[in-house]
Amino acid sequence: MPKRVLIQLDCDPQPSTFDAIVAVDAGADVLLRHGGVTPDIAVSLVHGGMFTRGGSELASTAIFIGGSDVAAAEAVARRVAQTFFGPVRLGVLVDPSGANTTAAAAVVAALRHLVSGGQPARAVVLGGTGPVGQRVGRLLARKGLQVTLGSRSLERAEAAARSIAEQVPGAEVGAVGAHGTGTPGSPLAAVLANADLVVAAGAAGAVLLDATGREMAAAARVIIDLNAVPPAGIAGIVAGDKARTDGTQVLYGALGVGGTKLKIHRAALERIFSPPAVLLDAEELLVIGETIG
Hints:
Rossmann fold, 40% helix, 5-stranded parallel beta sheet, 2 domains, elongated
């Protein structure tokens, strides 16, 4: 069999070293790393992968699409998908800024502890308009949870909720302004009081749920903070928490979820080097995460 060649298409000026190292650890023999990739630039790079091998050997070439600008990476992914035709296509993993693998890992962790049956579980996703938050919300909605997206901008939260509702028919998705976390009687306080799951997916170092807000979410069964940079995104959670119990609650920090994220990332890289060629986005990565636990 020919060597495994991974074409790394990164929208940032310099391709991610994190993504490169994970690819090597997952078994890529050769990395072709390209930075500053746009949809137009991607076409010729993808053609180079499509037309150098044929038959079963084509499966030994795959594409990883990343970068810190999620919208730009998704635009590249759409153009890449349009470039393929018939059987001439490559496996593709889309994971800009780690948003898809992180969201999938967070949902896998949450669903371990949320027993189905009866009324749908209710989830609040703080930082719900960011790349990870939107994907967490979308994946939870696909699993039948009632989802509320929280953001400092109610307008942005409402727009993100509408986007998820358009993508997930029948989804129950709402929005709430995340100002006044610790203010009794605020709309956010009311949502937190009824939540079974709270996920913080905000920017590094941003406190989204302070101690008072955490008390308002006392009924939540699972609380997940995806912020690995101090201070914690949710009061009382440390990055290394992994299914730590605190009274009736189960707590996860960023590193506690990170182990599953890396497993998903590596398994996904293995999958895109296996026929038939697939394009792995957040939903497909969640399936992988559920399989590997």
